[in-house]
Design goal:
four-stranded antiparallel beta sheet; about 120 residues; mainly beta
């Protein structure tokens, strides 16, 4: 199994920025997809952004132009830079690692955007 540890969540005002980090317990050099998902109260978990081991990215329409996903394979870490945050971005954010062998989730980190 791949252990994932998220960090960087917190409380931020409307229009502010946060950077989430997700550290994996093993090398992420192999073929895989790492992503960030979020779940707001009363809503289903949804994809925010993901990135392949080759660097190809994919974003939800709601965050395009505001969020940037990146990865540092040497540090086994994936990042989510979140700018121009809105109250509707408030959710628990989860990191995911998906490969042929594994499908692992982090414990989640809370992001709260206030007016």
């Amino acid at each position: 199994q791949v252990q994932l540890v998220e960090s960087g969540g917190g409380l931020v005002q409307l229009g502010g920025s946060l950077r989430l980090s997700c550290a994996a317990s093993r090398s992420i050099f192999s073929s895989n997809v790492m992503g960030w998902y979020r779940q707001a109260p009363g809503k289903e978990r949804e994809l925010v952004a993901d990135i392949t081991s080759g660097g190809r990215t994919n974003y939800a329409d709601s965050v395009k132009g505001r969020f940037t996903i990146s990865r540092d394979n040497a540090k086994n870490t994936v990042y989510l830079q979140m700018n121009s945050l809105k109250p509707e971005d408030t959710a628990v954010y989860y990191c995911n690692f998906r490969s042929v062998v594994f499908n692992s989730w982090g414990q989640g980190t809370q992001v709260t955007v206030s007016l």
